[in-house]
Design a protein that fits this description.
globular, 15% strand, DNA polymerase, domain 1, five-stranded mixed beta sheet, 199 residues, alpha+beta, 5 strands, Cytidine Deaminase, domain 2, 2 domains
């Protein structure tokens, strides 16, 4: 079963169109069909419009898909900041407001999922370390990468970006979940705080 057949099965089970907001959000949050197949009810109820009953429907449909021996796609591996840019540039780079996302990674630097943590305004997004680490703990992440957009197209890190990165890194040291990088993206460019020596 490929990505299209999973999308069709979910749309049929939920009685919605394949381009519905819920279906789009599912395939935005989970990088590969394999990651989506492992989604649990708690993760699904974080999506707007998905309550406990609908989450159970989705999980049941995904279990059926998994039972049909869905071939696993190669995981997305992060090796350098450009990999992060290519993964996220068309997800958030074009937005007219800031969004803050995380990419939880396993021990081999495979992306577990893409998760939006905060939606902000034209020039800011409020991010609390507790929200970031709650999600990382739930996903058993070994490390992670923070990503956010600059609607202006100028990916230069602000003082606030640097301070947030330091707070997140300090919290990660206490919890044993390392922040590997914080990347600011637009559609055409990016800035890695790690590369710039800002973390």
């Amino acid at each position: 079963m490929n990505i299209y057949s999973i999308k069709t099965a979910l749309a049929d089970a939920l009685c919605v169109k394949e381009d519905s907001t819920i279906i789009q959000e599912l395939f935005t949050r989970f990088v590969t069909p394999y990651e989506l197949l492992d989604a649990n009810e708690l993760e699904l109820t974080c999506i707007k419009g998905v309550g406990p009953a609908k989450a159970r429907q989705i999980v049941s449909t995904l279990k059926l898909a998994r039972a049909l021996n869905t071939p696993r796609e190669a995981p997305y591996v992060i090796r350098k900041p450009e990999d992060i840019f290519q993964l996220m540039r068309f997800t958030i780079g074009h937005l007219m407001h800031e969004e803050f996302w995380i990419l939880p990674l396993n021990t081999k630097n495979h992306v577990i999922c893409k998760e939006r943590i905060s939606v902000g305004t034209l020039n800011s997004a409020i991010v609390h370390p507790r929200e970031v680490y709650r999600s990382l703990i739930q996903r058993a992440a070994a490390s992670y990468i923070a990503v956010h957009s600059h609607p202006s197209g100028d990916c230069t890190a602000s003082h606030e970006d640097i301070q947030l990165t330091k707070r997140l890194a300090e919290a990660g040291e206490l919890l044993g979940i390392e922040l590997l990088d914080h990347v600011i993206v637009s559609t055409d460019s990016y800035c890695s705080l790690k590369e710039r020596g800002l973390m």
